[in-house]
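As the next step, I needed to go through one protein, both as residues and as discrete backbone shape codes, included below for the reader:
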Amino acid sequence: MQNPHVRVLLIEDNIVSARLEEGMLAHADTRSYQVQRAETLLESLDLLAKNEFDIAILDLTLPDSQGIETFLTIHRHAPNLPVIVVTGIDDESVALNAVRQGAQDYLVKGELKQEKLVRALEYALARSQKAPGGVAEPKKKAPIVGLIGAKGGVGTTTLACHWALELHKQTGDTVLLADLDESSSSASFLLRVDFPYTLLDAAVNLHRLDTDLWGGMVCHPQNQNGLDLLQAPGAARVADPLTGDRVRHVLRFAQSQYRWVVVDLGRLTAASLAILEEANDLFVVTTAELTSLHETTRLLRRLLDAGYPADRLKLILNRKLKSDPLSPEDLEKALGYACYASVPDFSAELTEFYAQGRFLDDRLKLRKEVARILARWRGVEEKPASSGFGFLKRLRE
């Protein structure tokens, strides 16, 4: 039996055109059309990421995208979604081009009638053989792991680089390390890359992003097959701040290209805050210094207030000295949050290896410690019976 409900994504910035098309669908006799509207390309990509639709009605001219690239972007992000292009009479050639590249049909705004619109939707649904209201196959997305520093200088980038390398080593899977630390080039330095393109280039060219363009945006660290780096903007030049919405969609595209995505978030910024919902797990890196602990308390509160789930938020105490007076239990009481793991202070060894140009050597004790934490996180290592790092009861309640 045909489902009476059709979920429609209407991508239209003109309020008059949108109300007209919504009214036509609201009064259709065949079945119910449930319409959600987006006014921009980025807003439509957000809706596509969070909802299932049966069909889309697309205006090719939007505030943040124009012409055939508007359709191609939607098609890349939702290749199985049938799309009806609605265009002005002067843009019929562009609309025909969209049909040649995968759109189901096109309609001219000045000639738009209810019967034409409904018939176009029904024909498109029939041709695509997509059952409205049906259960779509789950999309395979690479998990995103974020590392964020309580403040600068706590070792976040060093841990992120080792994390990405060790993740590839342990799993054999492809891994992307995305650097969001806007003013830094530390990841590029540690991975020994000199490359002209950065995350900002990918964000600016979001409407053109496909597999071929992506291959030119990421760099491939020497002797690290299986690991790609998407550099921070500061690695190439002084740049304007990143836009969180665009970065979010760059990462969503990256999820289709890799098995794992590791993100060095640097410190909390508007851009990093905007993509928190994309991270499956978020590791907060801090040290036992008083200023670090103060900033850690503030950061944890901000993350929780922003709605990030407490059970996906994990605290790593970096550079833990044997002489530190604070025990893990003391630290938990001081922060009001539980530690997931602690990393001993390997500064002396790192200095020695760095002097020899061996920045990310897998013989480093730090690398072995990261491997242990990573194995525990992946669930391939039996957890100790008593580690002293239990979650606080108030976070379970």
Summary: The longest strand covers residues 313-320.
